[in-house]
Amino acid sequence: MGFQWNKHNRDTSKPIPVRGYNLTKLLKRVRELEKDGYEHVKPYQKIYKQRKSFDYDMSRNFGNGGYKFNGYTDTVEYLFVMKKVN
User: pTM of this prediction?
Assistant: First the structure.
Protein backbone atom coordinates (compact mmCIF):
# COMPACT_ATOMS: atom_id res chain seq x y z
CA MET A 1 0.00 0.00 0.00
CA GLY A 2 1.62 3.24 -1.11
CA PHE A 3 1.45 6.52 0.72
CA GLN A 4 0.14 9.53 -1.19
CA TRP A 5 1.73 12.79 -0.08
CA ASN A 6 -0.49 14.75 -2.45
CA LYS A 7 -3.01 16.20 -0.01
CA HIS A 8 -5.68 16.91 -2.62
CA ASN A 9 -5.94 13.35 -3.98
CA ARG A 10 -5.51 11.51 -0.68
CA ASP A 11 -8.24 9.04 0.31
CA THR A 12 -9.07 10.01 3.90
CA SER A 13 -11.25 6.99 4.73
CA LYS A 14 -8.33 4.52 4.70
CA PRO A 15 -5.58 4.39 7.33
CA ILE A 16 -2.18 5.56 6.11
CA PRO A 17 0.94 3.55 6.98
CA VAL A 18 4.03 5.67 7.56
CA ARG A 19 7.13 3.48 7.67
CA GLY A 20 10.87 3.90 7.50
CA TYR A 21 14.22 3.32 9.14
CA ASN A 22 14.97 6.82 10.48
CA LEU A 23 12.84 7.57 13.55
CA THR A 24 13.50 11.33 13.61
CA LYS A 25 12.35 11.79 10.00
CA LEU A 26 9.28 9.66 10.67
CA LEU A 27 8.35 11.69 13.74
CA LYS A 28 8.52 14.87 11.65
CA ARG A 29 6.15 13.31 9.10
CA VAL A 30 3.81 12.13 11.86
CA ARG A 31 3.74 15.60 13.48
CA GLU A 32 2.94 17.10 10.07
CA LEU A 33 0.04 14.68 9.65
CA GLU A 34 -1.21 15.41 13.18
CA LYS A 35 -1.38 19.12 12.28
CA ASP A 36 -3.51 18.19 9.26
CA GLY A 37 -6.02 16.36 11.48
CA TYR A 38 -4.72 12.80 11.50
CA GLU A 39 -4.61 10.58 14.57
CA HIS A 40 -2.82 7.36 15.51
CA VAL A 41 -4.83 4.19 14.91
CA LYS A 42 -2.49 2.08 17.04
CA PRO A 43 0.85 2.59 18.82
CA TYR A 44 3.93 2.55 16.65
CA GLN A 45 5.61 -0.78 15.97
CA LYS A 46 9.24 -1.77 15.71
CA ILE A 47 9.81 -4.37 13.01
CA TYR A 48 13.11 -6.19 13.45
CA LYS A 49 14.75 -7.64 10.33
CA GLN A 50 17.81 -9.86 10.30
CA ARG A 51 19.67 -10.74 7.10
CA LYS A 52 22.66 -12.94 6.41
CA SER A 53 25.73 -11.29 4.90
CA PHE A 54 28.11 -13.17 2.58
CA ASP A 55 31.54 -12.35 1.11
CA TYR A 56 32.86 -13.73 -2.15
CA ASP A 57 35.96 -15.85 -1.49
CA MET A 58 38.35 -16.30 -4.45
CA SER A 59 40.87 -18.45 -2.59
CA ARG A 60 38.89 -21.69 -2.58
CA ASN A 61 39.74 -23.02 -6.04
CA PHE A 62 41.28 -21.44 -9.07
CA GLY A 63 38.44 -19.99 -11.11
CA ASN A 64 35.80 -21.39 -8.81
CA GLY A 65 35.21 -18.93 -6.03
CA GLY A 66 32.71 -19.44 -3.30
CA TYR A 67 30.69 -17.47 -0.82
CA LYS A 68 31.79 -17.26 2.79
CA PHE A 69 29.36 -16.42 5.57
CA ASN A 70 30.27 -13.02 7.04
CA GLY A 71 27.62 -12.55 9.73
CA TYR A 72 24.22 -11.02 10.28
CA THR A 73 23.02 -7.47 9.72
CA ASP A 74 20.22 -6.26 11.98
CA THR A 75 17.86 -3.46 10.98
CA VAL A 76 14.88 -1.89 12.71
CA GLU A 77 11.95 -0.50 10.73
CA TYR A 78 9.34 1.73 12.38
CA LEU A 79 5.66 1.71 11.43
CA PHE A 80 3.04 4.34 12.28
CA VAL A 81 -0.60 3.95 11.18
CA MET A 82 -2.54 7.21 10.89
CA LYS A 83 -6.18 7.96 10.06
CA LYS A 84 -8.06 11.19 9.36
CA VAL A 85 -10.39 12.35 12.14
CA ASN A 86 -13.48 14.34 11.18
Answer: 0.68
